[in-house]
Design brief:
Structural class: alpha/beta
Order of helices and strands: HEHEHEHEHEHEHHEHHHHHHHH
Number of strands: 7
Distance between the termini: 51 Å
Radius of gyration: 24 Å
Helix content: 40-55%
Number of helices: 16
Strand content: 5-15%
Oligomer: single chain
Shape: globular
CATH superfamily of the largest domain: Spore Coat Polysaccharide Biosynthesis Protein SpsA, Chain A
Number of domains: 2
CATH architecture of the largest domain: Alpha-Beta Complex
Length: 531
């Protein structure tokens, strides 16, 4: 019994140490976010000179690459409406069976406030349903209006999204590639607000902040927004101000063609081709400029199984990318601090493994605390790990209440909303730990799986409803059953804590019971929509 007690304690403590270290590094990003100055602007190219090819040098790739730190344009830079020195841009829209949302995306991109002779739109259409005909009709209508737009259909969906972007490069004329997933509705000023930042020749990517069209649709969308706001404020800006590696988020950003080529191009060997190429291009000498002030609206998944499929792709792809690139990162010339942050960034999905271990082993630990107390181990030692929880609370509070991501004009209402949603977010995140841990382990093992798109239904407000079962899929699998059983497991732990009059883990176990129970109920409920 004594050996078992110390084994359980060791697993629980190591897991908690990992979680705490991760949270403290997040707090470090919060420090950079709030206290470090923004990168200084470079000298801007003249805007009143005629356009000549020799003036394109301000948009050229850095000679010989290199990794020297460079200055960036200020976040408020916007090209004047009559600026002549605008480079040619290819807008790539990689899609697969996006019947409900592709029309509004094409409409939004065709309305860009950018000279029509300076950009083209390529719909990289791998669809196998009525989306093909819908896109063809949209393309024909806009071509008749003089818009440079094409529907590009590949004979085979080789490499999924990464393959579509890779093959689309051969058809693209642009010096720059703007990329949008089908669920986005970019603002007309998007290109005018992003392209000027490429005046810095070492800028390889300009990424904008995701906004949420349907944030208030239901509890699932509210909690997704809570988490995504952290990434698109504290994490991205904190990494940029700290000089760490950032990431292109797969959409709502612009690439310099030369940066794609310098990084080795789009590669389909991971499910997160965006993170993969981001790291490779930065190691090749380019930088990513993140624009927190420029929002790009998008639709969040509104049902649990679509949300879980997105999580699976992100978690597994993150693990695949870590396995692929961590050795390269540590062989690079980055400073040690940057390597540490890049490692934590690439291993971010692994946090769910440790949350799962910590949760599962906390239950037997509840019964073994008496045995451990005989050897001088006090339950109060776990109080030191409150630092991690406080760090997470601070990060999420700033991202959702004090940043531009908060669009509620009432500070009081924002705080109340945060106080209600944050505990639910913790519960939901812990409830996803089984599902996401499976995805992470598959990624580390090198087990391949297809790129599964997240279905979207053009749901923009609480008044909208799912109008069709099209694109919804799923079945009652062992993971969903396991989530239901784990909810009962932790509910039993709450009862045991009350019976033993030991409340050390009672809040933790209650959140786990609620989280796993909610994931199970939502998953089963949404499966009822399937034929």
């Amino acid at each position: 019994m004594t050996v078992l007690a110390f084994v359980v304690l060791a697993i629980y403590t190591v897991s908690l140490l990992y979680i705490t270290a991760y949270c403290l590094l997040q707090f470090n990003l919060l420090y950079h976010y709030q206290h470090n100055p923004a990168p200084a602007p470079p000298a801007a190219p003249p805007q009143d000179a005629p356009v000549r090819e020799d003036q394109r040098q301000c948009y050229a790739s850095p000679a010989g690459g290199g990794s020297a730190r460079v200055a960036y344009p200020p976040e408020t830079d916007v090209a004047p409406a009559d600026a002549p020195a605008l480079p040619f841009v290819t807008v790539q829209l990689p899609i697969f069976n996006e019947y409900y949302v592709i029309g509004r995306l094409i409409d939004a991109v065709a309305a860009f406030d950018y000279p029509r002779d300076r950009f083209e739109i390529h719909v990289l259409d791998d669809s196998t349903d009525e989306t093909v005909a819908l896109v063809a009709a949209k393309v024909a209508a806009y071509r008749a209006q003089g818009v440079r737009i094409r529907q590009i259909i590949r004979p085979h969906r080789d490499g999924y999204k990464a393959g579509a972007l890779r093959d689309g490069m051969a058809e693209a004329r642009g010096e720059f590639m703007a990329i949008f997933d089908a669920d986005f509705v970019p603002n007309p000023q998007f290109l005018r607000r992003t392209i000027p930042f490429f005046a810095d020749p070492a800028t390889g990517v300009v990424q904008t902040r995701w906004e949420h069209l349907n944030q208030d649709y239901n509890l699932i969308t509210r909690l997704q927004a809570l988490q995504l706001n952290v990434h698109f404020t504290v994490e991205q800006v904190g990494r940029m101000k700290g000089g760490h590696l950032l990431q292109f988020n797969g959409t709502a950003g612009v690439w310099r063609r030369a940066a794609i080529e310098a990084g080795g191009g789009w590669q389909p060997d991971t499910l997160t081709e965006d993170l993969d190429l981001s790291i490779r291009s930065q190691l090749a000498g380019y930088h990513i400029r993140y624009l927190e002030e420029v929002g790009s609206p998008a639709e969040l998944p509104v049902e649990m199984n679509g949300f879980k499929s997105q999580q699976h792709r992100w978690m597994k792809g993150g693990a695949e990318t870590a396995r692929k690139l961590l050795p390269t990162v540590w062989r690079s010339g980055l400073a040690t601090g940057h390597k540490v942050h890049a490692t934590v960034h690439l291993l971010a999905s692994s946090i769910f493994l440790f949350v799962f271990l910590c949760a599962v082993f906390s239950v037997p630990l509840l019964f073994l605390l008496g045995t451990l107390a005989e050897f001088g181990v006090s339950k109060h030692i776990f109080g030191v790990f409150l630092a991690g929880l406080l760090s997470v609370i601070a990060v999420y509070y700033v991202a959702n209440v004090r940043s531009v991501a908060n669009t509620d004009p009432s500070f009081f209402r924002s705080v109340v909303k945060f106080l209600i949603l944050f505990p639910l977010f913790l519960a939901l995140s812990m409830g996803l730990s089984l599902h996401n841990s499976v995805a992470v382990l598959q990624g580390y093992r090198g087990r391949k799986s297809p790129f599964v798109r997240t279905p979207k239904f053009n749901i923009n407000s609480v008044a909208d409803r799912l109008r069709s079962k099209r694109y919804l899929s799923g079945s009652l699998n062992w993971i969903t059953v396991g989530e239901g059983l784990l909810s009962l497991y932790f509910l039993g732990a709450v009862a045991a804590g009350i019976y033993l009059q030991n409340t050390t883990f009672i809040v933790f176990h209650a959140l786990l019971a609620v989280g796993y129970g909610a994931i199970f109920v939502f998953s089963v409920k949404d499966l009822g929509l399937v034929k």
